[in-house]
Amino acid sequence: MTTQRSRTLAAACVLVVMAGLATAGCSKQETTDKATGDTGAGAQTVAPTTGAAGTGCTLQSYGATKLDLKNAVVGFSQSEKEANPFRIAETQSIKDEAAKLGVKKLLTTNAQSQLPKQISDIQDMLSQGAQLLVVAPLNSDGLEPALQAAAAKHVPVITIDRKLNATACKDYVAFLGSNFVEQGKRAADAMIKATGGKGKVAILLGASGNNVTTDRTKGFVDQLKAQAPGLEIVAQQTGEFARDKGQQVMEQLIQSKPDITAVYAENDEMGLGAVTALKGANKKPGKDIKIVSVDGTRNAVQALVNGEYNAVIESNPRFGPLAFATAQKFFGGEGIPENVIISDRAYDDSNAKASLGGAY
């Protein structure tokens, strides 16, 4: 009797454990699908014009010590709350690659879009023994106290997705990311194609204080002036890279600028907010109002498939492999170019459905 009861109890425990594992597996798959898509199809590739191997910042010129990442403490500073698919995919990519390489310890922080917190986050990680820092800066300026703290301990800093107004190979090793001016130009070309080069355009600007907003605006505006003077920019208003803010701004623009025929959103979240606003005003996004944005999120590419969008220029957030590969080269004695620029794809109605798996 006792033996039978023990067997029954053991079997029940096994079922509970298996159910728990199944649930965890489903949760992980759901997160992966939403955050990273087909990571193989969406892997970053480095543009061929970023500099030859052996040039740039070296371990010696930076004043750092050789390090084996497998025995290292690495700190990652995320700038914004992970309610944005870009940030979710970016952080997960760093975590995944650290685990793949067997990094001894990965410290992760999130500044929640607060510059003072990002500074204190970085300083705290240094206090915890971080020997390498990967930083996604909130702003291009203002991180000087954190950079100085890293320099005092000879800890290398690699920046991703936003550039710093600082000195390469002194304040940081290198910047890894996209050519944001080129993204703006490509968005303008897509807008010209979608509109026939005529109409009235509203720009939903990103957050102020960083080079992404400045460069994506410059690339777009300059390209329209050069290639499509018939496309008039009638409004530029910040949506702070947020969906709800993008929706609010679009709702206001529908009232104040009823003759708008196109929207350039400097990230997908604002563009999707504009879609919601237009639907609420009984307008057909993608048809009545053309929409082009930058990022390459799964939701934006799906909107393109659905005919509610006209083009998406990718800005790939999967920095994990590139960041750690760059660090390994640096600690191995290779020179790292000041700017390591990645190649981004573009989505339109000709490839969106087939490429959906590579979106994040």
Proportion of strand residues: 15-25%
Strand line-up of the largest beta sheet: 1-12-6-5-4-2-3
Stretches with pLDDT under 50, minimum 5 residues: 1-40, 50-54
**What does the overall shape look like?**
elongated
**Largest beta-sheet characterization:** 7 strands, mixed
Write down the secondary-structure element order: HEHEHEHEHEEHEHEHEHEHEHEEH
Cα(first) to Cα(last) distance is 55 Å
DSSP summary: helix tally: 12
Number of strands: 13
Radius of gyration: 23 Å
| Mean pLDDT, all residues | 89
The portion of residues assigned to helices is: 40-55%
Features:
360 residues, alpha/beta, 7-stranded mixed sheet, 6-stranded mixed sheet, 12 helices, 13 strands
Question: Your description of this structure?
Answer:
This protein has 360 residues and is of the alpha/beta class. Helix content is 45%, strand content 17%. β9 (262-265), α9 and β10 form a beta-alpha-beta unit. The radius of gyration is 23 Å and the shape is elongated. The N and C termini lie far apart (55 Å).
Short overview:
The protein has about 350 residues and is of the alpha/beta class. It has helices spanning about 1-35, 60, 85-100, 115-125, 145-150, 180-195, 210-225, 245-255, 270-280, 300-305, 320-330, 350-355, and strands spanning about 45, 75-80, 105-110, 130-135, 155-160, 175, 200-205, 230-240, 260-265, 290-295, 310-315, 340-345, 345. Helix content is about 45%, strand content about 15%.
